[in-house]
Design brief:
about 140 residues, mainly alpha
Amino acid sequence: MNSVPFIQLSVLIPSVFLAAVLDWKSRRIPNLLTAFIAIAGITYLVIEHSAASALGGVTQGAIVGLACMPIYVLRGMSAGDVKLISVTSIWWTVSELLIAIVSTAIAGAILALIYICVNRGATHVPYAIAIATSTVATVFAA
């Protein structure tokens, strides 16, 4: 296992945990928080790698966001969830992104099952919890 970059431990993980808590409590993920995660990810890529890596990360995040749009349209995710998964995607290499996508899907399915069983008639699963869980898994698995 490679060493985990300090910025992921000190910025990314606390940020996604904050998003999860806010989503749980208020069913909202503030745009300011997702903007912060995006800017921090771009800055991280520029400093650690290159401007080209940052451009690739932004492109990757946009692709993931667009791929989530059908789920949003079908009301399976809220706009905040789509933005959060998009901006966390900026931080990953392609192989890490695959880990993140699979772990988000697994964590999301488990969360949805538990949440719907406990909260019958629930209309919104706080999906940021699944995104935060997969972010931690990706940071430590990659």
